[in-house]
Q: What sequence folds into this?
């Protein structure tokens, strides 16, 4: 089914989407600005397809005056290394999680608060609204320009040792978490041994049993063939991790206002495409993981409540670290959308 979905998706890539015309003068060979875009996702992942789509849209909307070369599969390094490279202008675009810089941009740690969002639609509405835009704008002092929150997904738990049906079952599991202080503290509070690790190292660590498990959206688990090294799945939807499409300040400043407008429009068009495909595949991929031999269980509501109770002190502590006013305002935006 996924193969058929991807064939449809690729056909959509070829077809392209219609954008409001933005007048950019046709490029000469000398005038063309060539950019590198890095991400960590496998070629089969919908986010990889979306970035190929973005490159096509940029070429179209700038009349070829801006060319984006896409490097996936962490070919340009880990997410942390790519973000550092974007800050220095060594690479021009990055698409992925912003958690590697959350220790320095503390407001981003809000996305590591467990059970922050109730649905994909709610998350998208908040990210596309004033709260999400303020976070993108705040990246400017890190020499990064935020184009769009381009997608996101709920994270779930997998491991190779045992079924996880309760908070007690989590105790002692050595689990990889994102390189974020909040994620580390949350999983330790659940009784697990949380290990921050670059994603490029995770498969080998799971294969050699240096790690028992990790947490990730199901689409990513499938795209990275984690069914080869993991047996047990637990549906928790404990954290929604958004991904952003950003551009280095250096490259952005080198574009004309017309080119900037065209790139921004391409980013927003691609955002809609990326979210649609991510959601479609997420609805199918759990069955694909089961077909590959993984055993899935849903965490009972009472146990999810026990997890919320266990991590509440972490949320309270990190609310003070991030800033109580910021956290309060962000929850207010969520409440507004939830109504």
A:
């Amino acid at each position: 089914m996924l193969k058929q979905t991807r064939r449809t998706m690729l056909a959509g890539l070829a077809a392209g989407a219609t954008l409001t015309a933005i007048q950019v003068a046709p490029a000469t060979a000398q005038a063309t600005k060539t950019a590198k875009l890095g991400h960590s996702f496998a070629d089969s992942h919908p986010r990889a397809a979306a970035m190929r789509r973005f490159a096509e849209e940029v070429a179209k909307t700038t009349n070829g005056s801006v060319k984006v070369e896409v490097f996936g599969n962490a070919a340009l390094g880990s997410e942390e290394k790519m973000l550092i490279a974007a800050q220095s202008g060594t690479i021009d675009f990055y698409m992925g999680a912003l958690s590697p810089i959350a220790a320095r941009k503390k407001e981003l740690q809000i996305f590591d608060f467990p059970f922050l969002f109730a649905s994909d639609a709610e998350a998208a509405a908040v990210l596309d609204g004033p709260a999400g835009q303020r976070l993108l704008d705040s990246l400017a002092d890190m020499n990064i320009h935020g184009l769009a929150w381009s997608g996101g997904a709920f994270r779930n738990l997998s491991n190779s040792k045992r079924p996880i049906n309760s908070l007690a079952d989590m105790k002692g599991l050595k689990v990889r978490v994102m390189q974020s202080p909040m994620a580390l503290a949350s999983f330790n509070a659940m009784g697990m041994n949380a290990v921050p690790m670059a994603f490029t190292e995770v498969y080998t660590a799971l294969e050699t049993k240096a790690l028992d498990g990790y947490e990730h959206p199901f689409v990513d688990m499938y795209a990275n063939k984690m069914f080869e090294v993991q047996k047990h799945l637990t549906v928790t939807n404990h954290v929604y991790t958004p991904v952003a499409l950003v551009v280095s300040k250096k490259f952005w400043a080198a574009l004309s206002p017309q080119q900037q407008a065209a790139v921004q429009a391409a980013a927003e068009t691609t955002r809609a495409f990326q979210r649609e495909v991510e959601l479609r595949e997420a609805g199918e991929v759990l069955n694909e993981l089961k077909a590959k031999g993984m055993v899935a269980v849903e965490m009972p509501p009472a146990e999810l409540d026990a997890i919320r109770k266990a991590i509440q002190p972490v949320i309270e502590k990190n609310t003070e670290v991030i800033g109580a006013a910021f956290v309060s305002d962000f929850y207010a935006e969520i409440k507004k959308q939830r109504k």
User: Anything to note?
Assistant: The chain has a mean pLDDT of 91. The beta strands are 33-38, 66-71, 93-96, 144-159, 174-177, 193-196, 213-216, 232-248, 295-298.
